[in-house]
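Thanks for the sequence, V.! I ran DNA-binding transcriptional regulator, LysR family right away. Repeating your input here for the record:
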Amino acid sequence: MHRLRRSLPSLTALIAFEAAARTGGFTRAADELGVTQAAVSRRIAALEKDIGLPLFERRNRAVHLTDAGRDLFASVRTALDGLADTVERMRAPGARLTITVSVAFAHFLLLPRLSTFREAHPDIDLRVISEDAWTAPDDRQIDLGVRYGTPPFRGMRVVGSLDETLVPVCTPALADRLGPLTLTDLAQRRDIIKIDSASPEPGWLNWTAWFRQSGWTGGFAEARLRFSSYSDAAYAAMNGEGVALGWTRLLQRPLADGRLTTLPLSPVVPEDRHFILVPEGKPPSPERDAFAAWLADA
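Predicted structure:
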């Protein structure tokens, strides 16, 4: 028997160990693998006996990796991810990229321009995941992601960024009706309907933060129209419902085609920005590099 086969533990045990280490528990690992919790426990016990070291500390129904467990987990996860990537490429030959972005980024910046990338790179198949939840560090299928915030981003490496400015926006017709505005007008006039949304990503500014960074220290009339999605807030502004905070790079298309206009107030340059990220440990990819370069020119 080859030396490698003699020295490696059971693959079944390694898979059970990886699942338990990643999910943080034997029961969750069992649910994921479709086996009983007792089966996972037996496999990990056999692995610990084979290696001769404890891999988990078992305390009060919770399990925590030991130093040996963390060392093994890093190696096992890298090996299993590499194997899965290879099998996936063999099953679906050809260049393929999986991209993850927020819903607003997909709606307003990525999708309106995506045809230019596809025309330049017709042989690259794209899969776009639009979600505000950030799962890229734990999803081995992700090749590239865009995230708003400040580095470092766990498990990801920065390869580019997109600057932003933030200024109130509305329809040209509404801007004409409101007339020339000062910061005081925007803060205190009750006839100006402010539109707000939940934050799709960490660091996303709301009206409170925007007024503060604009130098306003007094009170202001709260937003009277709120949405759970920034995309909905932006579309409400395009429909003339009121004034929303506009991320000028994100909304460059509706600002350029006249659906929106900026109000004559000083823009805020936020400390955070959109970063283009790739998973640490992923092998080099000319297709991914091409997409990152195209996106950086957005």
